[in-house]
Amino acid sequence: MGRADADVQAVKPMVPSLPGTHLVHVGRQPIFDRDGEVVAYELLFRGSTEAVEAGRQDTYATSQVIVNTFAEFGIGEVAGGRHCFINLTREFLTGELRLPFGPKHVVLEVLETVTVDDEVIDGITNLVDEGYRIALDDFVWGSGHERLLPLTSYVKLDLLDGDLSHLDDIVADIRRHPGVQIVAERLENATHLELAERYGFELRQGYALSRPQVLSTASLSPSRLRRLELLGALSSSDANLEAILSIIASDPALSMRVLRVSNSAASGSPLRVSSVRQAVVLIGLAQIRQWAMLMVVDDVAEATEDQMASALTRARLSQNLAVSMGAPADAAFMAGLITGVADLLGMPHADLAQQLPLSPEIAAALTRGAGPVGRVLRAVEAYETGALSELSGSLDLAGQFIEAVRWSAHLIGATKAPAS
């Protein structure tokens, strides 16, 4: 990675960091083909918008990059359909930590710090059999990483600090493996570009072409206790779907992450979800378990209870009103939850809706206020803003609101972590 981790251009977040939220970040540096077209991005750990270096390259860093990319931004927002190169530590390569995403659109980079032994080779062989593509980062002949060439799709050569005295031999050895593309990295001047052209390297990356950027967005974090509670429920030999759904639905931020991950799972599919249940079924309990594990590794600050309660109360009130207004209760709960989370993040409801694989009914409700669910949301908004003249006199909103407040308070109180 080297200088790809330094002197980063920051992309200012589109939304402010509000109380109860925090900014999450991911760095990305373009990878170009011979014609100068961006064909992929390398994803980099960043702890802040202003960070000029990764700071760490451990399991935490890898976990945070994965969680932020797939569950906060959404892979489509970060990559736009292009491949993403993701650096992996030994724990992920050997299968000790399972990857919570499929092989589509990702390339797994083997860090130069990973010692290649039989366990690593077996783990990477399994990943390749599952359809993942492998890249060797900062490749040095004689480091042991040449043992992975038969399993590799990409080899990255450092043209700034790498040993170029045997470049002819190294390139010749790599070319003995059909299908392996060479990525010339750390191209910082015209000499490096000429060298990449002379050797016919398929892909190029470096300051001479583009510096990394830091993408930032506001996020509402799932509570630490609910992550652990979810992981415990998923770890049971007879995992109870209803219990798992209850845990996920009780935490607005966790629900949003599940929905964003389901968006990645549904990529290229016409399937759109209309409930948290559908999202969980689409992803599968095995992958939900893997995401829960990564969220424990990626432990960050909790949202405030008041703001969690606000989002949950709106979702519950929407659900309560749904039956009398001719709307599906599950769809109304999800729509209310999404509007609550969007408000916490300072985002327009429609903008957040566009990041999620929602059914046409919910999407229309959030973007245009259309349909039965849209009528529910308008009624809830009118009640919250005091626009009582817009409400039907037959609706018992005061009673339903009090029930929703009690429900959300009970839910949060039942799962509140002790002070530490």
Helix-strand blueprint:
Layout: E1 9-10, E2 22-33, E3 38-44, H1 59-73, H2 75-79, E4 83-88, H3 90-94, E5 106-110, H4 118-129, E6 133-136, E7 154-158, H5 167-175, E8 181-185, H6 190-199, E9 203-204, E10 213-219, H7 224-235, H8 241-249, H9 252-265, H10 276-283, H11 285-297, H12 305-322, H13 329-345, H14 349-353, H15 360-368, H16 371-385, H17 397-414
Parallel strand pairs: 1-10, 3-4, 4-5, 5-6, 6-7, 7-8, 8-9
Antiparallel strand pairs: 2-3, 2-9, 2-10
Structure description:
- Residues 1-226 form the EAL domain.
- Pfam families: HDOD.
- Residues 220-411 form the HDOD domain.
- There is one protein chain.
- With 420 residues, this protein is of the alpha/beta class.
- It has 2 domains: 2-217, EAL domain (TIM Barrel, Alpha-Beta Barrel); 221-420, Hypothetical protein af1432.
- 46% of the residues lie in helices and 13% in strands.
- The chain has an 8-stranded mixed beta barrel with strand order 2-3-4-5-6-7-8-9.
- Strand 7 (154-158), helix 5 and strand 8 (181-185) form a beta-alpha-beta unit.
- The protein is elongated and about 85 Å long.
- Mean pLDDT is 79; it is low at 1-17, 48-55 and 414-420.
